[in-house]
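Notes from hallway chat w/ T.B., transcribed later so I don't forget. T.B. wanted the structure written out for a chain they're using in a teaching module, and asked if we could keep both sequence and structure tokens in one place. Agreed to drop them here.
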Amino acid sequence: MAISPAGLRPEPGSFRDPANRVFHDGDDVLRGLDAQAAEHWRALAASDFFTSLLAAGKVCGTEAVEPDRLPGATRWTTVLRHERIPFVSHPYEWSFTMLRDAALLHLEILRAALPAGFTTKDGSAYNLQWRGTEPVFIDVGSFEPVRDGEPWAGYRQFCQTMLYPLLLGAHLGVDFQPWLRAQVDGIEAEALRPLFRGFRRLSPGVPTHLHLHAAMQNRHAAATTTDVRAELRAAGYSRELALATVRGIEKLVRRLDRPPATSHWADYQRTCGYTEQDRAGKERFVTNALAGGPRPRLVLDLGANDGRYARLAARHADQVVAVEQDPAVVDTLYRTLRAEGQRRILPLVMDLADPSPGGGWRGVERASFADRAAADVVLALAVVHHLAIGRNVPLPEVVAWLADLCAPGARIVVEFVHPEDPMAQRLLANKPEGTFPDYRRAEFERLLAARCDIAGREELPSGTRTLYTAVVGD
């Protein structure tokens, strides 16, 4: 297949490994390999373990294509084409169990690679993505032949972006998402050590992978990588020992757990004040809105809670991203969806009043939520009042944000909770009187009509909530 350079766009997050880089050409995801990486790829593609991983879907679908017309054609001697992941997410948007499952897949792949003579030179959580609730390894360029006597090069990355966040959650009950969002390279050992003093020093995984690891880093701070490798070889470090180490880490990660805690949001469906008539009318309206146009490739369910409407959307769409701010609620939803074998819904942790910004190098290495969205349908059910009243986001800003998350011609299915609704009254009770004079149904309709064509509206039987279907202009 000939590749046209006209639509090629380098992936902003793919530049740290000079041996290969990812590009986008329309819907195609391409990876250019230099001569040495191409040699590693040919050996990898001929191996039984890699073929088995591909067949099982544990590594993203990959095939070689014609190497013509990639930028720097003399540099990229081989070009691979990967399957396109439905929605790219970041580890700080995952729940505890999601991160643990991603870590276990990475370790499973490494455990299969080592006996076959391969390793992974990276250990980053960013090397994994999701097909619904199914993790998949995407960094095919990370595989390289293993050299006897050398440790796993990705160990430090694995600790900082996977193991340390899991230790935070399992042993301290601390949400790791803010830590990973603040530091693209993950949590440094020295930053975590002060939290594991006293009896916590003996928590599973902490003595070896935190304190000893940090001590070894400090000891070898002035040494070169070559010096460290030579020291390990002299000490008898072998491939068998490396494999035993990986098995030990895998056993540790399987033991780490953080049962989802109870929270206000975990019981929201019971406490939100819907009558059975309201709930039935809302589900009927949402179903008609989803089925009333072209099949959506991507639906965003904002404020997904227990996933009731995400499941409904999954019957009519290729992929649903269910966003909820409470990590415990997302973890419960993920575990439930995983048990159901659901592959069309990806649950993510995100505060909608503070959505994921761009991060990393120049602020584009990790794309913002808005830049990744471009949804065909946005479900904003019982969300507007929480943003406008609960978080003091001006109503015009809320409407503009919803429209900006959409692809041209997309549909917004939005619920406006009237000021006299009990839930709105509960939020308003915590605000000075007269704070939100513009929070009115007529004003919301005016703002929505200014950005979209309102194609449908329905007042729920309770009389204090109105649903809208709006089509975003080109």
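Follow-up for T.B.: The mean pLDDT is 91. Might be a good example for the class.
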